[in-house]
Amino acid sequence: MSINCEILDLRAFLLVSETRSFHRAAETLHLSQPALSRRIQKLEQSVGAPLLERTTRSVVPTAVGQDLLPLVRRMLEEFDGSLFSLRGSDEHRGGQVTIACLPTAAFYFLPRVIARFHEDQPHVRFRILDLPATEGLQAVERGEVEFGINFMGSSHPELAFDALLEDPFVLACRRDHPLARKRRIHWSDLAPYPLITVHRTSGNRTLLEGALARENLRLNWFYEVTHLSTSLGLVEAGVGISVLPRMATPQGEHPILVTRPLGHPEVSRTIGVVRRRGAQLSPAAERFLDLLQHAWRDG
Q: What is the DSSP string of 44-83?
């Protein structure tokens, strides 16, 4: 069944949701309030459910409206970006690439690939949501982004997961730490030292603890943080040592920190590209994804 709505209907819904006011949205769109209400009603009829809940003092999206908002926002951004790019000549056409990326990949790896892409496609704009694994999957599933970079999603029935590489967990410690003198470290070597880890709700923590439980290994998780970057700051300050994916560690020489491989067992996460099954990427996203896959596989 097709949904019959116009771009202005979507803009009306987005503006009312963001301003929480029919009056302000109507002024912005240069519509009368009755005309704006008719736009909203038409969209609600097309969707088959109320999208906005009106109170005496404000207007808020319903549960269905909240689910629809990210998709509408991305659709309008891509539509506006496409119109903007068409104003120029062929060689200056751009577009927008919207992706959800693990913060670890967004910090170290992704900027290098975007810089390479920008050399050939300087008019393509990027919108990057650096989200934890679970939230990144949800953004892909809702259509808020065109694709995601994640280590989760391979078993999701509505998503396709294309594996790119294995990202092993490594030890991060100060150069003056006793473990820094060893070239390769076993998990059992970590037992005497306080460890810094991410919160239990993290996908990385779940993956790590599951692998260690299968080997009957228990470690001294002493500090919990929300972001892996925070754990590196604590390591640098000499508070403890940290276990984290290699992708989350500084690339090249660092004046204070070193990383060491961990074995017995080796634990890694599979990084890949997550897409909605059957979804068509924009031309700009297709070009960027092609470069991303080549760059990642080439190291």
A: HHHHTS--EEE-SS-EEE-HHHHHHHHHHHHHHHHHHHHH
Has residue 118 got a pLDDT over 50?
A: yes
Contact 22, 36 (CB under 8 A): yes
* Element at 149 (helix H, strand E): strand 147-150
CB burial readout 244-258, b (16+ within 10 A) else e: bbbbbbbeeeeeebb
Which residue in 74, 63, 46, 48 sits closest to 143, CA to CA?
A: 74
CA dihedral 262, 263, 265, 266 (to 10 degrees): 70
Judged by phi (left if over 0) then psi (alpha if -120 to 50, else beta), residue 208 lies in alpha
Distances (CA, A) of 227 to 27, 131, 214, 234: 42, 11, 25, 11
CA distances from 150 to 44, 179, 196 (A): 34, 30, 22
CB burial of residue 179 (10 Å; 0-12, 13-18, 19+):
middle
The secondary element (H helix, E strand) that includes residue 10 is helix 7-19
d(CA 158, CA 248): 28
Interval 227-257: pLDDT, tens: 888 899 999 999 999 998 998 888 778 899 9
Residue 162 forms beta bridges with which residues?
A: 273
Q: Check: CB of residue 231 under 8 Å from CB of residue 225.
A: yes
Report the C-alpha gap between 199 and 210 in whole angstroms.
Answer: 14
* Between residues 70 and 85, the one the model is more confident about: 70
Q: pLDDT tens for residues 168-179? A: 999 999 999 999
- 105 SS3 class: helix
**Mean pLDDT rounded to a whole number for the chain:** 85
